Structure prediction request, 212 residues.
Amino acid sequence: MPVITISRMYGSGGSEVAERVATELGWSLFDNAMVDAVAERSGLSVAEVSAQDERVPSMVERLASALSLGSPEVMPPVPSGPMETTEERIVAVTRRVVEEAVQTGTAIFVGRGAQCLLAERSDALHVFCFAPRAALRQYAMRTFNIGPDEADHRVHDQNRQREQYVKRHWNRNWLALENYHLALNTGWLGIDGAAQLVTEAARRQFGAAIRD
Prediction:
C-alpha cells in the first residue's frame, strides 16, 4: 500500500496540506490522531505524549527521567528487562503505530520521523513543506496572538526541536533535501496549491492505488 509522509516547518501549514490531500485521495490521515494512538498503546496520558511530541527532552528532563528509573518506588519487584525512559517508549510505540498502519491501507503521516521510518519503501512519497521566515512568523502571531519577537522565538524553538528529534532518533538531517521527493514553499504556493501538487504527484506515482 503506498504512503505519503509530510514533514513540515512549524508555521508552514503542512498539517493543513496533509488534511486536504487525505480528503482528496480518500486516504487515512495520521497527524494529531497519532498522539492518541501512542498514548493508548504506551499506557501514557495524552498530555504526556503531547508534551514530548517531536521534541527532544532537555538535559534536566533527561536527568530527572534517569533518576526516576533508579528510584525504588518505581522499580518492579522482579526486573523484566531494560527500563525505558518515557522518550524511548514514545518513539518505540510511534514506530509500531506507523508500521502497523502501513499494513492496513493507504495512509498519510505527518511528521514524527515517518520519512525516516519509511525511507526505504519504494512506494512512499516524501514531502517537505517550508516557508520564508516572515510567513512562519505571521502564522505564529496570528495563531497565538503574540508579537513578532515572541513569534520568532516560538518558530525557531519548534523547528530546532523537530530537527534535533530527527537527528537524535534516526541520525538524519531533517532539512536535507535528499530525504524528500518534493519540497514545497507554502508561502508561495499557498495551502491549496501545495496540496494540489502533492495530490497530482501521488496520482502520477501510484496510479491505480488512488481512489477516484
About this structure: The beta strands are 3-8, 28-30, 107-110, 124-130, 182-185.
